[in-house]
Amino acid sequence: MNDLLVDVHDLTKSFGPVTAVNGIRLRVAAGEIYGLIGPDGAGKTTTFRLLVGALRLDGGGGLVGGHDLVKEINRVRMQIGYLPQRFSLYGDLTVDENLRFFAEVNGIAASEWQPRRAEMLAFVGLAEFAQRRADQLSGGMKQKLGLATALIHRPRLLLLDEPTAGVDPVTRQDFWQLIGRAVAQEGVTVVVSTPYMDEASRCTRIGFMRDGRILDEGTPQAITSPLHGRILELSGSPRRQLHALAAQDPDVEAVQPFGEKLHLRVRPGTAAAVQQRLPAALSSAAVTVQYLRPIAPTVEDAFIAMLESEG
Ligand SMILES: Nc1ncnc2c1ncn2[C@@H]1O[C@H](COP(=O)(O)OP(=O)(O)O)[C@@H](O)[C@H]1O
Ligand SMILES: [Mg+2]
Fold first, then answer.
1. How far apart are CA 141 and CA 101, in angstroms?
2. Based on the domain organization, do 212 and 234 belong to the same domain?
3. Within the chain, which residues score under 50 in pLDDT?
4. Binding site membership of 45 for ligand 1 (Cβ less than 6 Å)
5. Which of 19, 73, 160, 197 has its CA 20 to 30 A from that of 245?
């Protein structure tokens, strides 16, 4: 991979006894959407803070936006658009005034400001709300304005820390479309964190993060491929009993609730046998089986399997 926007190694940061980031290596090539996926406390936010120089490294280093993370942090910052997990707009300023503020903070020349402002308002679809106060925007609109403020100075690297947390599914979809368009139209490279596994498939590559480490990394396809042919979806009721009974099958390694359904992970090569045997065994108990069928593994299936193998 050449043209790496992020090329850092051994990044480490502790807070007292807690090692929030424990020696991670991260390489992100131009044009990628790299997803940092992991539960609360995994170290995602600390990683972002290290990449923007908001926290001092305890160890490690490397290049961000082509500049040295330790020696050239001001140059690094100029390459980055950062949308923090709890970013704040100025509620008493309008959409327009917020954009202007972030443009000025980032040193955009006045002559460049007007065309860029119009471009960004159109990009995030807020042109007709330019004069609305930020505290009167919906959650989704605030998020889009946040994205516009992060992009206003044409960064090469966009860092988004849980940008879709707590917003409704439709708004999440919208936001991911915008991320894709930012890569296509603005030419940025993206590192985005999310607690939502279903968003992982939107990324070119993902890293599973836990306890300050990146445990596994790859394209969504590569991450899920070891589980091909090993996930069965079970629908029926009552779910709790189904769960307990399915877990007793000798070839079933794990049972996980997925919405209204259950996912069974079976030993390699046993899917057909389980599919034949299990419904009969279940319906002799007092449960109803709607169907048991093979499905493509999801990133969440892969994450769960990986956590179990890590112990
Ligand atoms: N400023 C801080 N002071 C003390 N502990 C912190 C601080 N920031 C993060 N931590 C701890 O570091 C770990 C990683 O936190 P964080 O990077 O926020 O994870 P994530 O963003 O994945 O939820 C957690 O155990 C958290 O409590
Ligand atoms: Mg966080």
1. 18
2. no
3. 1
4. yes
5. 197
Phi, psi for residue 137 in degrees, rounded to 5: -90, 155
Residue 300 lies in a domain: no
For residues 46 and 130, membership in a common domain is answered with yes
For residue 18 and ligand 1, the question of a CB distance below 6 A is answered with: yes
Say whether both 114 and 163 belong to one domain. Answer: yes
Using CA atoms in the order 161, 162, 167, 170, what is the torsion angle rounded to 10 degrees? 100
Taking a 5 Å cut-off on Cβ, the residues next to ion ligand 2 are 44-45, 85
- Residue 75 structural domain: 4-219
Q: pLDDT per residue over 73-127, tens digit each? A: 999 999 999 999 988 899 999 999 999 999 988 888 878 888 999 999 999 999 9
Is there an atom of ligand 1 within 6 Å of 43 CB?
yes
Minimum CA distance residue for ligand 1 atom 12 = 20
Q: Measured from the CB, is residue 194 less than 6 Å from ligand 1? A: no
Question: In this structure, is residue 194 part of a structural domain?
Answer: yes
Say what the pTM is.
0.91
Q: Which whole-number Å values give the CA distances from 108 to 84, 99, 161, in the listed order?
A: 21, 11, 24
Among 62, 61, 63, 2, smallest CA distance to 30 is for: 2
Evaluate whether residue 285 is within a structural domain.
yes
- Whether residue 259 is found in the same domain as residue 208: no
Residue of the CA atom closest to atom 2 of ligand 1: 15
Provide the H-helix boundaries in the chain.
44-51, 73-78, 95-105, 110-124, 139-151, 169-181, 220-224, 239-247, 271-284, 299-310
Q: Work out how many domains the chain is built from and give that number.
A: 2
Ligand 1 in reach of 79 Cβ (< 6 A): no
**Closest residue to atom 7 of ligand 1, CA basis:** 15
C-alpha 101 to ligand 2 mean position (Å): 25
Return the ligand number nearest the Cα of 42: 1
